[in-house]
């Protein structure tokens, strides 16, 4: 099969992922789901939903060819026992991702961890290849000076219990377990290689009141997006062509970062959380537009957003495809800025595969290696 045909087949494939959202009742699962997917702000009363009863099943279309079958599972003990017994095979089969939420202020940590071990054991039994994301939530309730220490301690416990759960399923002695829950552990973004399951385990400290929630969910979505290498290659070509410092590609409704490209100059930016901050800023801007225009919060609120910081930098965010927005940050200069906007508009046809599984031969050919015009030049793709 030719490279063009292979790329075409890859882009046409519709991907569905079963995502389990689990954790003790009151841990904040449904609130974070409302903030990420239903476009509520943390301060909005509607974002603080009541307890989920049994399983709240929703289908979230993310980009054109990724559908998340999101199972928000009630965390009351009776429901948890039911998931692990009568509904065990139904709940834990064919799972792509488990998102488990711990309330950092829970007063019964041992019981919480015991439930987590049971959940992981069931998951490994029925969906061994599933990826696991653990969110240590409500970290805003911890004093700033001790947050890192508290998170590291809880992360060590979770890693230990994860290893124990794997050992239970495989009926083997967990000789590889650390001797103490306070043992040194890697950072949350670099899982330990000490267990069979650990490469699929990531931990995040989160709060609905800052950008940490966007960071965690962007990492989750990033791992699920099909054709990610194609998107990254296309963004790199566009970034080099327009001489940008950085390009971010956002999903339209959630404003989570789907993919990004950074130049060598852009890598010098000292703010490591800038991507999540931009997600937060643009989503807040969208809410502001909705408030003053009276349009539904899930509707498209703006098409262009520009910001020019004198002789420092320029940036613009614009509607890119039906399902995405693109943000471009670049050196100052009016001619450079206008040229970049025109070239981004000209590049849209090459990213049409983000809108759905049906891809034109023109777009597939672009994926196979078509390039962009250089700085200052504007054109359209050849037919």
From TrEMBL:
Q: Which residues form a coiled coil?
A: none
Q: Which keywords, in A-to-Z order, does the entry hold? A: Cytoplasm, GTP-binding, Nucleotide-binding
Q: Which SUPFAM superfamilies match?
A: P-loop containing nucleoside triphosphate hydrolases
Q: Does the keyword Translocase apply?
A: no
Which InterPro entries does this UniProt record tie to the protein? Gtr1_RagA (IPR006762), P-loop_NTPase (IPR027417), RagA/B (IPR039397)
GO cellular component terms attached to this protein's record: fungal-type vacuole membrane; Gtr1-Gtr2 GTPase complex; nucleus
Subcellular location(s) of the protein = Cytoplasm
Q: Name one Pfam family in it.
A: Gtr1_RagA
Q: Which GO terms describe its molecular function?
A: GTP binding; GTPase activity
Subunit structure, as described in the record: Component of the GSE complex.
Q: What does this protein do?
A: GTPase involved in activation of the TORC1 signaling pathway, which promotes growth and represses autophagy in nutrient-rich conditions.
What protein name applies here? GTP-binding protein
Question: Which organism is this entry from?
Answer: Staphylotrichum longicolle
